[in-house]
Amino acid sequence: MENKKIIVVGGGAAGFFCAIQIAALHPSWDISILEKSNKILSKVKVSGGGRCNVTHACPDVELLLKKYPRGARFLKKSFYQFATKNTIQWFANNGVPLHTEKDGRMFPVTNNSATIVDCFLQKVHQYGIKVLTGYEVVNVEKLNNQKEAAFVITLSNQNKLSADAICLATGGMSSSDKMDKLAWLKNFGHSIVPPVPSLFTFNLVDKKITTLMGVAVDQANIQWKGNKIIEKGPLLITHWGISGPAAIKLSAWCARELANDNYEGEILINWTPDYNEATLKMEWINLRMEFGRREMGSKNPFNLPQRLWQYFLEQAGIANNTKWADLKSTQQQLLIQSLTKTTLQVKGKTTFKEEFVTCGGVELAEIDANTMESKLVPGLHFAGEMMDVDGITGGFNFQHAWTSGWIAAQHMAL
Question: What is the pLDDT of residues 113-123, one digit of tens each?
Fold first, then answer.
């Protein structure tokens, strides 16, 4: 087979993985990664608090698909080609064994994202892949003359590069500026689903509850008022509002709705997710009998952090030395409502650490899920978050990066 010239645009997880897979199949090919900034693999470095949440221990494809608010149907064909088990095997084969935490997130056993970065850089060096930083693509043209390379790429300094095939892996489109830079995609007839943020935490108007910053619960239900989706999991009170896995997952599922609401509205929290208001009211009869003479300010029966319990008592106007048996019905009702239906006013969001994710991107109907190739432009492929695919927190966005990068590579290598 003739030597081909391949260009991957984007020096992140999907771009590196794609380039490495092509080079493994054709070590003699001329393969370049173009990155517009001077940083490579920046999300890989910061993911999981600097440990890199590589993937999620979810071998069942049908279960895995349920972790993607957008793109699940598209990913079904993709994950049956390359999914979690393949990711784990690939990293193990390349000297990076992973371990699983109790919540299913998977990290390198070193618990250091540098292990992943070093692995990729070693593979790039091994195969002679060129990594070119400060190379910003501003236009791509497809040539009809098949005697020449299929594409001509124009850089911001007006230099031009040629390529037989291209993979676009430029990450999430986080700004209108980026959409402008990719305007040439529209010249090819591609549609861009407007990007909006996903994976963020909620800023609260009421600052009383934020005085409990640092308080965390292992299990709570959280819901955006007016939406039926309820996320269950750990919640954390911060100095600006509500964070934790359950809140961040909710932000992904409701990303478009929240953007439409301008991140203003109400969240509902059930701090005792084994009960709702009605069932807790019934259980309260047993609690009064069991704890009758005990003071309510002492240890609570719901295993809530004591500071949070004290906050609920205060909100209901209940003194710490009130006996369970002496609790007035009006106070009891207020307390039950606080425990099962805390309503908090939200105004604004905060990006979750540095793990910025967007939903939106290139319209999936225009991409072949079996090959990651454009249905409109032969030879043009996509990988990673620049497509309208996004997952909840927990390693799912990286899994999509590996999957789409691998599939694009298999087809580009033909």
Answer: 999 999 999 99
pLDDT of residue 365: 98
Cα dihedral sign for 172, 396, 22, 133? Answer: positive
Question: What residues does each domain of the chain span?
Answer: 5-196+358-412, 200-351
The pLDDT of residue 153 is above 60: yes
Q: Is the full-model pTM beyond 0.85? A: yes
CB atoms within 10 A of CB 308: 20
The model's confidence at residue 322, banded by pLDDT at 50, 70 and 90, is very high
> Helix 84-93 vs helix 396-412: angle between axes, to the nearest 10 degrees?
80
Q: 10 Å Cβ neighbour count for 46?
A: 16
Amino acid at 64: L
Looking at the predicted structure, is the pLDDT value of residue 195 above 60? yes
User: How far apart are alpha carbons 55 and 86 in whole angstroms?
Assistant: 11
DSSP 379: T
Domains 5-196+358-412 and 200-351 share a fold: no
Q: Which fold has domain 200-351?
A: Helicase, Ruva Protein; domain 3 (1.10.8)
Burial of residue 87 (number of CB atoms within 10 Å: 0-12, 13-18, 19+): buried
CB-CB contact of 75 with 83 (8 Å): no
Looking at residue 146, what is its pLDDT? Answer: 61
Cross-strand bridge partners of residue 230 = 223
Closest C-alpha to 137, from 231, 35, 275: 35
Tally of residues, the chain: 414
Are 296 and 320 in contact, with CB atoms under 8 Å apart?
yes
> Which option is the CATH number for 5-196+358-412: 1.20.140.10, 3.40.1370.10, 3.40.50.300, 3.50.50.60?
3.50.50.60
Q: Looking at residue 86, what is its pLDDT?
A: 98
Percent of the chain scored above 70 by pLDDT? 95
